[in-house]
Amino acid sequence: MDPVRIEEAKRNAIQANCPQELFRLAELFTRLGVSLYAVGGLVRNSLLGLRITDIDICSAAPPDRVIELCRRNGLSVVPKGIDFGMVEIHAGEHHFEHTTFRSDSYAEGGAHRPSSVRFSPSLEEDSFRRDFSVNALYFDILSGEVFDPTGGLADLEAGLIRTTSRDPDAVLSDDGLRIMRLVRFASELGFGIENASLDSAKRLAGNLRAISAERIRDELLKILLSDVKYGERDAGKVFRGLDLLDRIGALDVILPELTLGRGILQKPQYHRYDVLGHCLHTAGEAEPTVPSRLAGLLHDVGKPVVRQRNGNMHGHDTEGAELAREILHRLRIDNKTVDSVVFAVRHHMYDLNNTAKDATLRRTFVRWGYERTLSVAALRTADVHGSGVITGRVATAERWKRVLAQMKEENVPFFERELACTGRDIIRWLDIPPGPAVADIKRRMLMHCAVRPQDNTPERLERLARDIAAS
Ligand code: ATP
Ligand code: MG
């Protein structure tokens, strides 16, 4: 297999992303009589002028020889998956993922793990077991030559994700996870998906059922944050990724509760999109953190169910919170994130019409807590932007943020421990035994100070405690 010609500037760009340790490692590999190659993100992103996130390398050397060579030369290695030829090599501050050239066989059904792996001396054979042509570009670290057995350079130029094989079904049916990866790379890189690959993904979306929830979760979260992987916040980019998942049919498999909203139209004065489209747009509009994007995605997930049950959408926030909890547990999202998302979904309809008085807002915000109030306000903003119709409702969120900022400035206590007295003080002042009455008084003090923070002094709280006890 011959190397391809590339411009000097491009070669330099790839070389510039190879740390010194990698050149030294490549020298070592010559002792095994093989060349060492960079592959995957390093080559692809260097050519696109994007930052690199990890360093994948490969060669014809079998894993045991790689391990022995590295250890003999003072490099520590972590066997990551010996059966699959994967070894992590630590050199200075860097670590490199080395995979021996191989060809994989898969059982039917699309499970991610190959049923058998055969190591191979051939770079070309290795390229065909990879997923997409733009990920299967090889850079010989010492000679600076580039190998492109699957047409990745042309696809990079055209901005297309295409499977390594001319028969996309063969690639996508082997490992269902590749369908998620297809969308993820298209979304992160802002690339199109080549037609045959897209059609194949549509045919094979059902294979995602064979993929573990953890792997689906990881790819879904990457799609939700695909705008900020290489650039600035971009709601349209995230929407596009999620919409691709929908058009392929992947969303029906991984988030069927959400796709029930497909085709459900809403009041045009508030909404341009159907319920599903609105959820996907809101996810994109949300702040670029996992909890915010998930909250945007799931905030209206209760609508289809309550609409079917009651003929209207009332109560979709409560229903949605329950559904969101179920979905997030199923996707193995960590508990802290689940709690934060469920809270935002549960309260995203609060004071929709902006009629609550300042005092009411202040007490609610203390009950919710500072961070959670911010997250509900942020979801409200994303919700309005994601509706495609900017209404006065965005002003509600602005008012919330103003009130919250003012509370912060006035040192409003958000926790009982921020009150200027303890339970013991209350017991002493009122000469009462410890118990629920004390807790109740503290709670009422906190609500009082939400509106009158100037009363958060020991003297005034003592007077307040006596007033509460007398009332
Ligand atoms: P990133 O910048 O996101 O790390 P990458 O292209 O390096 O992008 P990786 O997931 O690190 O992506 O994959 C590294 C290499 O392994 C790529 O060449 C890719 O084609 C291959 N690869 C990874 N996962 C799969 C898979 N499920 N099926 C086939 N090839 C895969
Ligand atoms: Mg990588």
What's the topology here?
Elements: H1 8-16, H2 20-30, E1 37-39, H3 41-48, E2 55-59, H4 63-72, E3 76-81, E4 86-91, E5 94-100, E6 102-105, E7 116-119, H5 123-129, E8 138-140, E9 146-147, H6 152-158, E10 160-161, H7 168-174, H8 177-189, E11 192-193, H9 195-204, H10 213-224, H11 226-230, H12 235-248, H13 250-254, H14 256-259, H15 275-285, H16 290-298, H17 303-310, H18 316-330, H19 335-347, H20 358-368, H21 370-385, H22 393-409, H23 423-430, H24 436-451, H25 458-470
Parallel strand pairs: 2-5, 10-11
Antiparallel strand pairs: 1-2, 1-8, 3-4, 4-5, 6-7, 8-9
Helix pairs in contact: 1-3, 7-9, 8-10, 8-12, 12-15, 15-16, 15-21, 16-19, 17-18, 18-19, 19-21, 20-22, 20-24, 21-22, 23-25
The protein binds adenosine-5'-triphosphate and magnesium ion.
What does this structure look like?
The protein is α+β, with helices and mostly antiparallel strands. Among the domains are: 1-155, Beta Polymerase, domain 2 (2-Layer Sandwich), CATH 3.30.460.10; 416-470. It has helices spanning 8-16, 20-30, 41-48, 63-72, 123-129, 152-158, 168-174, 177-189, 195-204, 213-224, 226-230, 235-248, 250-254, 256-259, 275-285, 290-298, 303-310, 316-330, 335-347, 358-368, 370-385, 393-409, 423-430, 436-451, 458-470, and strands at 37-39, 55-59, 76-81, 86-91, 94-100, 102-105, 116-119, 138-140, 146-147, 160-161, 192-193. The protein has a seven-stranded mixed beta sheet with strand order 3-4-5-2-1-8-9. A two-stranded antiparallel sheet has the order 6-7. A hairpin with a 2-residue loop joins strand 4 (86-91) and strand 5 (94-100). The longest helix is centred in the C-terminal third of the chain and has 17 residues, at 393-409. It is elongated, with a radius of gyration of 28 Å. It binds adenosine-5'-triphosphate and magnesium ion. Adenosine-5'-triphosphate (ATP) binds next to helix 3 and helix 8.
